[in-house]
Design goal:
The complex is a heterodimer. In chain A, helix 6 runs antiparallel to helix 7 and helix 10 packs across helix 13. Chain A is mainly α. Chain A contains 15 helices and no strands. Chain B is built from nine helices and ten strands.
């Protein structure tokens, strides 16, 4: 059969989707609901603006800036290759024409996706009027996103001087994106041809790196599709850097009294960046919603009473997330002790030591919030007190393994929400 | 004409000449050279991090040498077109399509490499895979997964077979079957490059050994040559030879 290999790969793909739906259908319903709400907001904004009302000059500039920012992340910071095929295909078909064809198909899909995404952005920018202006924006955006995909691919596989070349090419393309001229279309098209030719003909793929990453991604997606949290955690651990950065425990000369406290501090410094970045983004989102006009065009987000609740919720969730991370670390030490590791610390000492780190970070975060919301006052003291209760109550119930763990977590979250809301209201 | 024939006789079928490769600042292959002829099984021996996997990746074109050449039948391996690359590979870690059955994997390989002479039925028979044909990889034992990797590699058309730790996870009966399969390849005039830590298992089938240390070929030759070089008595095991070689090298360096 001529296309047997392709048919088998489609079968593999469909069966994987079936497995994902079977194991995570509840989560998918949630995602669909969130998607529905966002789509509703999107259509509401368009309907409010009216058919034929294009974005203002400022709006266009900010949109292009956002597109450039997202693509700079894709090119320079994204650790995942943009064109992905199955790891097994790399292993079993690498030295064949089939491998090149599979990769080419992925590149083609990526360009088609760029056409679609650019079409939507250009439509919104031109107020759904299909004029020459719309066509030019669509073309420039399509070319820009496609060039960035190939630049990301080259940046992923290359190193040294070639990466410098990618930086230069990215700067040129971004300049062409903002330069409103027919020449920018021609320039972007030339750029696309050049990077495509380079990626196809000259670029030497770093196959071991690519293969290893694909294996990791597939293992992660298999774990997610089967709701296997233990495997997900294991993969996250395996994906950590092999070398630790920053100060070592012995550099800080720990004594028996300070050892646990220093350990908790180092754990927090060395932990993966993603949860910290997510919490920081959440905090920032809360501030933007309540203190700027950026989202006031959206339904409900123009009402200060609602935005205050949202910002309090975001801030409280940041605290709660930080506490969860610290409590988890303390619990790991306590569990090791229970499993027989000869640690010369009682549970009380573990709670106090980790609690000290939590309180230091709590104080810093509270000071940052009071500066951000210009709410610096004596009321910070009751807030800190509430934070201490919100940390120690669930921490004690978890480490002593009492029956009230769930209740303590709910109480802690509610206390955080109420106290932060009260503090911000003042 | 006689002179030309003699020159041809001296020419080796597979040659690795002065290959250098570095991962950034770390030199992984330091001018490694070795050669092999058709109908030979060559054992790649060395400690962890010696450069065995790196040379395998270079031969399988996953990596390109910084300098040096790798020739097969007098032709640089990088000049072979993709559709006629004559090297097959059994990897040390099995990688599969999670949702395809064992039989579907074999059909996939056959579809990608239609010129392979071995049939699916034949290879399944030889490796005792029939009873597992409808199972997905997750439902297979480690040994059966390894056998599937071997089956997929043997289904292709090739002149050189690279086997990276092919015995791991196999029981004694399966090891015997694989040994017989490798010897069959040798009889067919193929070159087999066998990388394994199990020196006692490879002892009876390898025609020559390449001992690698720190990216260099420490010594190469038949077991007899290695015995003479290490001055060990006749009948010493390959393990003893290897340990002696490493010891000699450490003393001399």
């Amino acid at each position: 059969m001529k296309y047997q290999a392709e048919i088998l790969l489609i079968k593999n793909y469909l069966r994987r989707i079936k497995g994902t739906i079977r194991h995570t259908w509840q989560g998918l319903i949630g995602v669909a609901a969130v998607g529905g709400v966002l789509l509703y907001q999107f259509f509401f904004v368009i309907a409010k603006a009216g058919y034929g009302t294009g974005a203002t000059e400022r709006g266009v500039f900010y949109t292009l800036l956002l597109v450039a920012a997202v693509n700079s992340f894709r090119v320079f910071l994204n650790q995942t290759p943009v064109f992905r095929i199955e790891a097994a295909s790399v292993l079993h078909t690498y030295n064949t024409g089939y491998f090149r064809k599979s990769l080419f198909r992925r590149q083609l899909f990526s360009v088609l996706a760029s056409v679609l995404i650019s079409g939507i952005i250009a439509c919104v920018m031109s107020g759904f009027l299909f004029t020459a202006n719309f066509l030019m924006r669509w073309l420039v955006l399509t070319l820009y996103i496609s060039v960035c995909s190939f630049l990301s691919w080259i940046f992923y596989h290359a190193n040294g001087k070639i990466r410098g070349g990618v930086c230069a090419a990215y700067s040129l393309c971004t300049f062409l994106l903002f330069w409103r001229s027919v020449l920018s279309v021609a320039g972007s098209a030339l750029c696309l041809c050049a990077v495509w030719m380079y990626a196809q003909r000259i670029l030497r793929l770093n196959i071991p790196k690519y293969f290893e990453r694909l294996q990791h991604l597939e293992a992660a997606s298999a774990a997610i599709s089967q709701n296997d949290f233990a495997r997900m955690q294991q993969l996250a651990e395996e994906n950590r850097s092999a070398y630790v950065r920053g100060p070592m425990l012995y550099h800080l000369h720990p004594t028996k009294k300070s050892a646990l406290w220093i350990k908790s501090l180092l754990e927090l410094i060395r932990m993966q960046r993603q949860p910290i970045v997510l919490l920081a983004l959440l905090l920032l989102f809360g501030w933007i919603v309540s203190r700027t006009n950026l989202f006031t065009f959206m339904p409900m987000l123009d009402d200060p009473a609602i935005t205050r609740v949202i910002s309090a919720f975001c801030t409280a969730t940041t605290f709660s997330g930080l506490y969860q991370l610290l409590i988890k670390q303390a619990k790991t030490v306590s569990d090791k002790r229970k499993l027989g590791l000869s640690l010369p610390f009682t549970i009380k000492q573990i709670i106090v030591s980790y609690g000290m780190t939590a309180m230091v970070f709590s104080l810093l975060l509270s000071l940052a919030i009071s500066l951000l919301y210009t709410a610096f006052s004596i009321c910070l003291i009751p807030l800190l007190l509430a934070e201490a209760i919100a940390y120690f109550v669930p921490c004690c119930t978890k480490l002593y393994e009492t029956r009230f763990q769930r209740g303590a977590t709910i109480f802690s979250n509610m206390l955080l929400c109420v106290s932060v809301f009260w503090f911000l209201m003042l | 004409m006689y002179a030309r024939l003699r020159r041809k006789e001296l020419k080796m079928d597979f040659e690795v000449k002065q290959v250098f490769y570095s991962y950034g600042d770390i030199l992984a292959l330091d001018g490694i050279s070795f050669s092999a002829n058709r109908g030979q099984i060559v054992g790649l021996v060395g400690e962890n991090g010696a450069g065995k996997s790196t040379i395998i990746k270079n031969i399988y074109r996953y990596l390109k040498p910084d300098s040096g050449t790798i020739m097969l039948d007098g032709k640089d391996i990088f000049s072979y077109p993709s559709d006629a690359y004559p090297i097959s590979y059994i990897p040390d870690v099995p990688v599969f399509y999670e949702e395809l059955s064992l039989l579907e994997h074999l059909h996939f390989t056959k579809a990608v490499y239609p010129r392979g002479v071995v049939s699916i039925g034949e290879i399944m028979e030889r490796l005792d895979l029939k009873e597992h044909q409808n199972k997905i990889p997750a439902a297979l034992s480690r040994g059966t997964r390894q056998k599937l990797m071997i089956a997929m590699a043997l289904l292709r058309e090739y002149e050189l077979l690279i086997a990276d730790e092919p015995f791991s996870g196999l029981d004694p009966k399966q090891i015997a079957v694989l040994k017989a399969l490798l010897l069959e390849q040798k009889e067919k005039g193929k070159i087999v490059l066998l990388s394994s830590h199990l020196l006692d298992v490879t002892e009876n089938i390898c025609d020559q050994y390449i001992v690698i240390k720190k990216g260099k070929c420490l010594l190469s030759g038949s077991k007899q040559d290695l015995l003479s070089a290490t001055q060990l008595p006749e009948g010493s095991t390959m393990e003893a030879v290897y340990l002696k070689l490493v010891e000699q090298d450490e003393i001399s360096s």
